Amino acid sequence: MVDTSFNSLPGRRGKSKPGTRTAAPKKGNQSTTIYVIFSLLALLVACVISTITILVKSHKTVTDSWRLRPAILVSVISSVFIISLGALFATGVTIAWWRSLAQGTTLKRLHYVSAGALPSGFYSALRAGGPARTVMLTAFIILLVRLAVGPFSQRATRVEANTVERDVEMKVRLANQIPDGWFGVWETFASRGTRASQQMFKQANLTTLNDDGYFCAGNGTCTGSATGSGFNYRCTSESTQINLLDPNNVNRLIFDINFGITWESKQPLFTVNTTHISSIDENCTGTLTTEICQLMTATVRYPITIENNIIHPEIDTFLDNPNVVANFTTPGDEIPTKETITKPIGSLLGLYIGCSIFRSNATLYAKSTTGVTYSSGSGDGQNFYWPNIYVDTSDATNSSNYKGKSKEICPLLWESPMRPMLRYIFDFTFRSAFAAAAGEGDKHLQRFPAVYRGTELWFMTDFAWLGVTVGIMVLGIFAAGVLLWGFWELGRYVTLAPVETAKALGAPVLKDAGGAHEADEIVDVIGREHVQYRGGELVCNGRTYATGARSLPSNMDEEERGDGDSKSILRNRTGVKEVAGFERRDGYKTVEVRDEDESMDLGGLGSRGREEGIREDVQMRLMPGGENAQGIPSAQRHGGQEEHWR
């Protein structure tokens, strides 16, 4: 049943009248085709070159040196490549379609040339053969390339942790001399010195600035050396034998840590005295060792290690290989008197007060049972804690340093406290010099060469995967390029736009496009035509085109059928059967479509232009003559001209 629900479509806009606008054929614009093809090819080649460049350049480079990771850049390039490859393939399909049409083919193969570009049409295009099969195989390759190029390119780059060593320049603020008064005065130790003593005892971290050069970037350490306030020192030692079981030696000093300052030479000296039993034989005869170290203020070169923004002075390394730059003395270290007791003190006096926490001693003590032990001193300024820290407890282990019965009777061995004391002294002084420079801006700024050692994250390129990726990209370009062959034969820029392909296939609705062939030209000529498709019919600018197999049922009323013995328009497989047109309720005429070898009278216009209007249908009775039979009427005249009927 014919759908009569179409609404009337407005006519063309503008002043042009139907049938009066024609288009002269334009000269083919093949340069557009060349521009499109070579632009896409250039973009695809640029994607290949960019992928190679990024992956080669990023090989063995630090991850922090790239604002965007190579994997992200390669992913973006892969997306551009996939889009461009799709555009080039679409251009190739278009060229293949038009070349196939120009060379002559069946509608079936022509259809599958374009349908074969989609996976849903692969099988049919493969069976159709010819250009359709070529398009199908190319589409299959392009599909695989577009699926593989992204993942494969990502496999070509990875991140690895590598142990590295390289030279860097570091900065630190460290005072070469601690100014007098920084530790306070003789009778009042400043809180700054107390804080340095606390940090030394707690082994608190020293944090430097977070600015470039101050902190060690990366996951590693920066090792170098910088000058700072310290001491030049020399040490001596002497030993005596002591019978630990002799009652006369009870209460004798067998462990001692003590400090003092002497002003006997031109330069004041800080003295460290330690005493301990260094060895015991099986008869409990011990070796009592006394060590004396004298220190004078000096500028020394400290080995330091910076990890992130934490600075570590390598005191043990310095003690093994002291590096003294220059000795110095200050008025604050002169011998105190009643007149100078309130004056600022220097580094030696500050050290004397700051390290007083280590003063301690222990004496020989006879047990009520068999054997001897020690008693920690509790005199003025003495700390009973340190003898317990340095006593040798190996008597409780299998790897005892004791011999024979000494393990049970006289376990009084100590490790030497001198090196730990020197370590504390230099650590205290380094922290004080670091703190003294902190509030002075760049006055004590030092730049020094350092070596970075650590683990870094590097971008690494897998060149095997890179080769596979490039091979896939080149394969895609080559496959798409196969369809471009022969584009010059077309002589103009072609597309698969519906109006362009319909015009090439002789669609009646596009007959007014005249000599226009390209889509833009066709639209420019008849682009203001109003069209509507519904119910198997196309209404175009006041005319209705039957586009499918439809018939008018016999139970339609006369109003629906129109005047006369109108029959339906029937399309079969081989052509179109002609019947009389009928007038629709909306006032439009159905077109009388004739066999394809005959000319068409579209919209009942005959040979006249559409501006002359639409004539009325002539009612004819096609039955054999009878008493009521009418003859075929003569042709009607419009405007004084005779209308010739076919």
TrEMBL record:
It comes from the Eukaryota. Signal peptide: none annotated. Keywords: Membrane, Transmembrane, Transmembrane helix. Residues 608-619 have a biased composition (Basic and acidic residues). Pfam families: DUF3176 (PF11374). The chain crosses the membrane at residues 34-56, 76-98, 132-149, 463-488. This is Uncharacterized protein. It comes from Dendryphion nanum.
